[in-house]
Amino acid sequence: MRNALKHLSSKGKRGAWIAFVMLAIVLLALPFFTEELFGRGWVRIMDFALLYIMLALGLNIVVGYAGLLDLGYIAFFAVGAYCYALLGSPQLGLHLPFWIILPLGALLACLFGVLLGAPTLRLRGDYLAIVTLGFGEIIRIFLNNLNAPINITNGPQGISMIDPIRFGEFSLGNTHELLGLTFPSVHLHYYLFLFFTLLVIFISLRLEDSRIGRAWMAIREDEVAAEAMGINTRNIKLLAFAMGATFGGLAGGLFAGFQGFVSPESFGLTESISVLCMVVLGGMGNINGVLLGSMLLVVLPEALRHGSGPAQQLLFGKTLIDPESLRMLLFGLALITVMLWRPAGLWPSNQRRRELVAENDAAQL
Amino acid sequence: MTTPLELDINLLELSGVAKRFGGLSALSDISLHIRRGEIYGLIGPNGAGKTTLFNILTGLYQADSGRFTFNNMEYSGRCKPHVLAQAGIARTFQNIRLFANMTALENVMVGRHLRTSSGIWGALTRNATARAEEHAIVQHARALLSYVGIDRPHQTLAKNLSYGEQRRLEIARALATDPKLLALDEPAAGMNATETENLKELLLSIRASGITVLLIEHDVKFILGLCDRVAVLDYGKKIAEDVPEKIRCDPAVITAYLGTEPIIPAQAGIQS
Predict the structure, then answer these.
(1) What share of chain A is helix, strand, coil (3-state, %, to 5)?
(2) Distance separating alpha carbons of residues A144 and A106, to the nearest angstrom
(3) Of A261, A299, A308, A269, which is closest to residue A47 (Cα–Cα)?
(4) What's the angle, vertex CA B220, arms to CA B217 and CA B222, rounded to 5?
(5) What is the pLDDT of residue B5?
(6) Domain segments of chain A: what residues?
(7) Half-sphere exposure of B44 (CA within 13 A, CB side)
């Protein structure tokens, strides 16, 4: 019996390994297939999808785990992006290396998270949402207006000619030949973003199933009870804000290096809302759900943009509605449908994880 | 650390505690003391200020005036709930406040939060210390769940437990904080006779393990049969504090509960 169980578990383990290796191969080969099938533009869209996944996972810590509604989350993305842009462009004449600016941007965003959190986290629910919304706008307006009297952010024109991400002499901005394969810039960025996305997923998974993660969820479920159980709610909420902001800042830095250009326009309220949509649509508090939500919300509008024109040609012989307007219409319709059918999100959080852990513990005893 | 000999016999002492809400005086000049290792009951008609007093003891409200000492430490000023939990006061709530979407086990594990210490670094690296701590938390939580008699799978979500189980889960969660004083706000409310009897046994066993218990109850029979000493509140004032036998025939208490005219049993029988 025991042997049979052992055999079964080793088989399970092997199965998991095979699945893992297959997934790795698919993820590594994905940009090449995508380019082959849909063109290089779609690899770029995938890069953006990865950035949004990082953002959504960061916001998931604040909204999904700790239950704090943050409507100004994109501000941390802006802080990371502008930190990278200012320290790695002709704007201030600074060209610090990538491996210094990126952590610095994440750290600065974290600091902003604490700065915003410290005075506002005493507020609850709607009030917190309003204050964070204000904060997001303040950051954007600052970026928009910090071009006079001293020109720091270059105002609405934004900062251009940002240094590409570079490891020594290896610049991600150029095409490289490696092992007989051609890696264009978008492919290289894909691999870099994939690495950071996996890192963020790993951190989220580890935090979720930990003392800190439980404290976040307790606050989400019932703040009064959590405090009565001895959780220092202010500090724990601040920690959630800081962690979320750090991920936002990280994604921001990568965005600036990838895009080569940042302007305040990229950091408006709509961006905050769409990241929030990704979290809510996918399933708050569940990493898989958030991944699904972000991918859908990046890919779906693009697919509609590219697909709705030809589809109309096919159906009616001519383009009746401008694909650009139709795309937002269909997109809104899709959102409403999902929220009606699956109010907890496409892939809601469940408690299977703890169950598995408990079984393992029982097996050890 | 103080040695047991230096310790006061009183675990908790209140003197002259008052609380006003606008023009309403919810509590005035409350003085009482709870001895170590006893079950102390707090009764009174609706609106007498029992829960207000309870919320002051657990940091949810701040008293306007008066002294509040617990375990030889002064907590009179502004004190947050988590500080008092740290000091060793754990509570349950009148209307159950569990973490509804977390499992029974996780609810109790949250109770261990303030007696454990691993932070972000421990969570990310899962080093030996963090793993050992996590393991200890799970073991402790399991033990507490079976101690309070929840024999359902520990993975059941708290909201899916029966009413009686939810009440007991709240007690388990409070016990997980290693309290010196366990404060229960109407734990027997809505329970049937068997459940109440089980609760009584549980509370006696908690006292036997050295934890002092403070109890608010409406069920006068339950409280008089269980408590070592009882205080009676009425209109925000303490009108009596004594052993149950004396409380039962205290004229002030009878007045507060039944009105001014003494009821003659024969007459009562005719009226009903």
Answers:
(1) 75, 5, 20
(2) 21
(3) A299
(4) 80
(5) 46
(6) 2-364
(7) 26
Cβ A212–B114 below 8 Å, yes or no? Answer: no
Q: Which residues of A touch B101 (CB under 8 A)?
A: 217, 221
CB contact under 8 Å between B113 and A225, yes or no, is: no
* Helix runs in A39-124, H state only: 40-59, 74-87, 98-120
A47 closest CA partner among A59, A23, A31: A31
- The conformation of residue A163, written as its DSSP 8-state character, comes to P
> What 3-state DSSP class applies to B259?
coil
pLDDT band at A342 (very low <50, low <70, confident <90, very high): confident
Q: Are strands B10-21 and B24-35 parallel, antiparallel or unpaired?
A: antiparallel
d(CA A281, CA A346): 6
Q: Strand pairing partners for A182?
A: A177
Which H or E run includes B32?
A: strand B24-35
Instruction: Indicate the CATH number for domain A2-364.
Output: 1.10.3470
Amino acid at B151: D
Nearest to B148 by CA among B129, B164, B163, B132: B164
Whether B110 and A231 lie within 8 Å, measured CB to CB: yes
Q: Which two three-digit tokens encode residue A68?
A: 């704090």
Name which of B79, B113, B173 to mutate to probe chain A: the one with the most chain A Cβ atoms within 10 A of its Cβ. B113
Q: Read off the pLDDT band of A9 (50, 70, 90).
A: low
Note the pLDDT tens digit of each residue in A305-328.
Answer: 787 777 878 888 777 777 777 777
Tell me the whole-structure pTM to 2 decimals. 0.86
Report the residue of chain B nearest A212, measured CA to CA. Answer: B119
